[in-house]
Design a protein that fits this description.
This protein is an alpha/beta fold. Helix content is about 40%, strand content about 10%. The protein is globular, with a radius of gyration of 16 Å. The two termini are about 20 Å apart.
């Protein structure tokens, strides 16, 4: 499949018919002769604090993006988040991942993130800006997230899946690893944790681990 076919196939997933802007980002060079197919999985999206439609799981999963205004839609537009200027504090995750992939000597004429696919594990935005989804997670969230991610993996067929959130890994990553034994599935901490975890040489699931996984399995 080429990128256009992958996007078309993803569009057939029921949830992405409701929220098309939340379809996973597929980089222009996700399918390449120089590296394996890599899917990065973050934790969750956010919406402005004044937005409340996503505070009820049952309401959110039965809803669609028509209930959101243009500004709110930008907050959950996966393609837009991966292709914008990344100047905001909330975009540190993309800046850090991009730097790590570039460290592998990927062509610097374009963004390194163009070489991968990206989605978030949780498909309901966190109820408060900047907060971990662990404070809002319900069984309904987990069931929906597992089902949607399984469908995504079956469609885009990554060779490697790396969760870039330990909470997302603890919640859904281990199950994915057990369900897809032919795929390398691993995790690191959230790249936005700075010196506390991501840049902490003493923490085992840090930036160094991410680069090691890439060097061993991606190129």
């Amino acid at each position: 499949m080429i990128k256009k076919d992958l996007i078309q196939a993803l569009s057939q997933i029921s949830f992405y018919k409701q929220f098309p802007v939340m379809k996973p980002f597929i980089g222009d060079y996700y399918i390449s002769e120089i590296h394996k197919k890599l899917l990065l999985v973050g934790e969750s999206y956010y919406l402005p604090n004044e937005t409340t439609v996503h505070h009820s799981p049952s309401v959110w999963y039965k809803s669609n993006q028509k209930v959101l205004n243009e500004d709110e839609i930008e907050w959950i537009y996966c393609d837009g988040l991966l292709t914008c200027d990344w100047e905001g504090n909330g975009h540190q995750i993309y800046r850090e991942l991009n730097k790590c992939i570039f460290s592998l000597k990927i062509d610097k004429k374009k963004r390194a993130m163009d070489e991968v696919a990206f989605t978030n594990y949780f498909q309901r935005p966190a109820e408060k800006e900047g907060e971990s989804f662990k404070y809002f997670c319900t069984e309904e969230d987990i069931n929906n997230s597992d089902e949607i991610l399984d469908k995504v993996v079956k469609i885009i067929k990554p060779d490697i899946v790396i969760f870039v959130s330990k909470y997302a890994w603890d919640t859904g990553g281990i199950k994915l690893k057990n369900n897809f034994t032919n795929i390398i599935v691993d995790f690191v901490c959230h790249p936005g944790t700075g010196g506390r975890y991501w840049h902490n040489a003493e923490y085992p699931h840090n930036k160094t681990k991410f680069i090691k996984i890439l060097k061993k399995n991606f190129i």
